[in-house]
Amino acid sequence: MATLTTTIKEDISLHGNKYGGIKTLSFTGINEVFSRVVTVTATETALIGFGANWGSGTISRTSVRYLRITNLDGDQAVMLNVEGDNATDFTVRVDPGASYIIAATAATGVDDYADISGQTLEGLSSITADSVSGSIDLELFVASI
Questions:
Q1: What whole-number distance in Å separates Cα of residue 123 and Cα of residue 133?
Q2: What are the C-alpha distances in Å from 38 to residues 27, 69, 78, 100, 130?
Q3: What is the pLDDT of residues 94-132, one digit of tens each?
C-alpha cells in the first residue's frame, strides 16, 4: 500500500500584493491506480463505471479515494456527465487544460457522495463525456484502496 499526495497551488501578484496558497492532501492505503487517455467525440463516451464490487470497466465505489479527469485539448471544452444511482445526473463543463477532481477522503468513497436530485446523497454510478465539437483527449486518473 502507498500514500498518494496531491497538491493544488495558486500564485498571483495583483497590484503589488501576492495571493494564493498551497493545499496538500494525502490519501493513505492506496493499492490500485487506474490511468489512461481517452479520446471523446460529440457522441457520449463512457469513461468510468462505479459499482458495489470491482468488475470489468467498473471500480468499487467505496474504494475510490481520488479521481481526476483533465481536458488535454488546447481549444475545446468537454462536457462530463456524472450519473447517480437513482438515474439522476448532472453535467459540468471542463475547459481546455482544466481538470475535474473528486477527493473522497471518507471511508465511503463515492458512495453517498452527491446530492444530485436535491433530496439525499446518492452513490455515483458512472461518468461519461462528450465534446462540443471534434475529438478531445481526456486524461483519467483514479486512485483507490
A1: 30
A2: 25, 10, 12, 15, 11
A3: 999 999 999 998 777 888 777 766 777 788 899 999 998
